[in-house]
Amino acid sequence: MRLIGWCAVATGVAAALAVHRRVPWIPVWYLAALVLLPTALWWSIAGRHIVGASRWVVRGATAMAFVALCPVPWMKAQLDHPPGTAWQLDGQLVIDGDTVDVPGDWYWLTAGRPPIVAEAVRSWLLGDEETTNLLTGRRSSRPTYVEPAAAVVGLQRAGWDISSQVVVEVSEPTVANVPGRALLAAINGSTLTDRVSWNEAIGALGAENTLTTEAGETIAFAGGAFPFARIDIIEQPTRELDVTLGGRYARTLPVRWFRNLSVGSSDGLMIALVSYVHASGHDLAAGRTIAGTGGIRGDGTVRTIGQLRSKAEAARDTGADVLLFPASQAADLDGFDPGPMRLVPVATLDDAIAALAAPSV
């Protein structure tokens, strides 16, 4: 029994070191604690060296410590400088059942971490501004259209005949009593099917208007001023295109949870690029390690993203040779030391393809 326990500890510590190497911003002590605490709890239950009330005290204290260190996956810590993480993309992208494993090493980048239970409890109990700001306080899930929409851009650029329709994502509301983000299905009863229908619906706004979301909710607003500051028109395939990120484990809880830390579409540029390389056979990596971040619109325009500096640090630390990022955010990296990594701002998918194909990059 004791041998089994020590083997469990050794295996757990080895796993903690492996995870730390892959995600260096997670401290080894934290990972080791997540392994050792349940092991200690198991020992207190299975072992006979702790007797009477002491056994229950040990069990309770160990269990509480373990729960306090567990992350809260449906919340996101709001930090001034969140940790960045580089995630492997080649071999982890699956399109219609085919694993995309293109030449070179490709990484997409995220920034942020979930708070642990102890942080959440502390903010709820104390209620002070500093700890309250750690949490968003609301559940969020990653839109399911992100990967298919990004892959379509790359596949179409490579010559695949895939028709698409628009998905209109709105965010940053300018008026009260509207959701922070929504997918629109119709405006004043007119279904949004393509960019033409969108332009016509926007041009026909009157004194009283309604927006219908994909979830069937109705948003009413007065006047011709659209109630959202940010509008993203994204192309989505008309036929079912199964695109998942995370390989064979993409739909398991741990992989889905870590992937959802980004809660957005900042992996779009890299998914479009890798999809293009996969479909065209054009070896853009040429033996290099390519990292990148940026959303992608249906016309290939690269969208802005958040926490660029944190993501750039993750790319540099993982040994990337090239970092692709939105050209409109070049000022965010002023003063950043990339080391040997080449910084390549891009405005479109074509810019990224041309930059990687150029011998000087």
Write up this protein.
With 361 residues, the protein is of the alpha+beta class. It is built from 11 helices and 16 strands. Strands 5, 6, 7, 8, 9 and 10 form a 6-stranded antiparallel β-sheet that branches. A 5-stranded mixed β-sheet has the order 1-4-12-15-16. Strand 13 (295-296) and strand 14 form a beta hairpin. The protein is globular, with a radius of gyration of 24 Å.
Indicate the overall shape. Answer: globular
Total count of domains? 3
CATH architecture of the largest domain: 2-Layer Sandwich
Radius of gyration: 24 Å
CATH domain fold name of the largest domain: Ribosomal Protein S5, domain 2
Structural class: alpha+beta
From N to C, what is the helix and strand string?
Answer: HHHEEEEHHHEEEHEEEEHHEEEHEEH
Count of extended strands? 16
Biggest sheet descriptor = 6 strands, antiparallel
Q: What portion of residues belong to β-strands? A: 15-25%
Low-confidence stretches: 128-140
Look at the structure and give the mean pLDDT. 82
Highest CATH level, the class of the largest domain = Alpha Beta
Q: How far apart, in Å, are the first and last alpha carbons?
A: 57 Å
| Fraction of residues in H or I helices | 25-40%
Task: Count up the helices.
Answer: 11
